[in-house]
Amino acid sequence: MRILLVGEYSRLHNSLKEGLEELGHEVTIIGNGDGFKAYPVDIELNHSFNNYLSKKIRVFFYKFLFTDLASIEIYLKTLFLSKRLKNYDVVQLINESSIKCTPKYEIKFLKRLKKNNKSLFLLSCGVDYTCIKYMIEEKFRYSILTPYINDKSLYNTYRFMLQYLNDDYKKLHDYLYENVDGVIASDMDYHLPLLGNKKYLGLAPNPINLDKLAYIAPDITKKIKIFHGVNTEASFKKGNNVFSDALKIIEQKYSDKVDIITTYSVPYNEYIEKYNSCHILLDQVYSYDQGFNALEAMAKGKVVFTGAEKEWLEYYNLEEDTVAINAVPSAESIANKLEWLILNPDKILEISRNARNFIEKEHHYLSCTERYVSYWKSAKH
């Protein structure tokens, strides 16, 4: 099949592409590489409003003329690329807002994709109308919206997520669900809100290319290294402040036993290089399942503090704290779990091996890719 993957988050579409190509399919990724993370894409689709002056001009037009120049530029680029965006057997969108335009231009783009290709699928990966509505209604015990729900003064921090609930984005959501052939969730945080939806095909775990990720057996003869990579644009929704508070407790009690490494918004390749030597990685707090960064770290044998809630444990038939550590929104709880590992370093070795085995069993890129292909084929018949 010829497959077009639109957009990229956390290297998901790159891993899927690797699996699809291994299975003999022809694959193209179009997108912006997810900002500063700079993931590879085959067709770059981005705007040029990046310097100080152009940003000011963009804000002026948006504020006073209700026009987003960046969206217009991106949409015009899709028109120039029209010949390269035709005649695919499958088109999959990474998200409801797959090319990062205003809903008006997203819909224009989607209409052409729908017209010029055989089938169109939506991946629920990253925030969208369905999951944000589920979160704001507090159907999760906690979620990335929890800090905002508890403190409305954080509105400006969350406004780009909350915009998915406004009328324009609801119109985009409705258009998609009327026109896509099916919707796939990438993990439990998107799976649970979609249960019962007639367009929902099911969960396809994030595909991890184990051929590129060697297992690194932990060496615990010296200090235990803890890595905390902060994405400054998403620090509240990732719970980085909770991790930071937990690390202060640990540093005060065990400075002789641990080395703490913290980075801020570094590109993907640099991020990987920094965490390769760590034993423990602090990923995210407000989730039920693991995202791509956590899964890749688990594949390398890191003990990852991330989403590992009971729904995830039940889905995969696992015991608590055997494969990953569930990071709940409590600095004291996280510090206690870190302390448990520091005082019981053999547990680091045990969880490290379990983590690699879990990724091999449940997230191998070829088996996960085959699930995507089966969903695509079943929805077309």
Layout of secondary structure:
Blueprint: E1 2-6, H1 12-22, E2 26-31, E3 43-44, H2 52-65, H3 69-80, E4 90-93, H4 103-116, E5 120-124, H5 129-136, H6 146-150, H7 155-162, H8 167-179, E6 182-185, H9 188-194, E7 200-203, E8 224-230, H10 235-238, H11 240-254, E9 258-264, H12 268-275, E10 280-282, H13 292-299, E11 303-306, H14 310-316, E12 325-326, H15 331-343, H16 345-362, H17 365-379
Parallel strand pairs: 1-2, 1-4, 2-3, 4-5, 5-6, 6-7, 8-9, 8-10, 10-11, 11-12
Helix pairs in contact: 1-17, 3-4, 4-8, 11-15, 13-16, 15-16
Provide an overview of this structure.
With 381 residues, this protein is of the alpha/beta class. The protein has helices spanning 12-22, 52-65, 69-80, 103-116, 129-136, 146-150, 155-162, 167-179, 188-194, 235-238, 240-254, 268-275, 292-299, 310-316, 331-343, 345-362, 365-379; strands at residues 2-6, 26-31, 43-44, 90-93, 120-124, 182-185, 200-203, 224-230, 258-264, 280-282, 303-306, 325-326. Strands 3-2-1-4-5-6-7 form a seven-stranded parallel sheet, with helices on both faces. A five-stranded parallel sheet has the order 9-8-10-11-12, sandwiched between helices. The radius of gyration is 21 Å and the shape is globular. It starts with a strand and ends with a helix.
Largest beta sheet: strand ordering: 3-2-1-4-5-6-7
Number of strands: 12
Number of helical elements:
17
Distance between the termini: 16 Å
Low-confidence stretches: none
> Sheet with the most strands?
7 strands, parallel
Helical proportion?
40-55%
Structural class: alpha/beta
Mean pLDDT: 92
SSE pattern: EHEEHHEHEHHHHEHEEHHEHEHEHEHHH
- Global shape: globular
Question: What Rg is obtained from the alpha carbons, in whole angstroms?
Answer: 21 Å
Beta-strand percent range? 5-15%
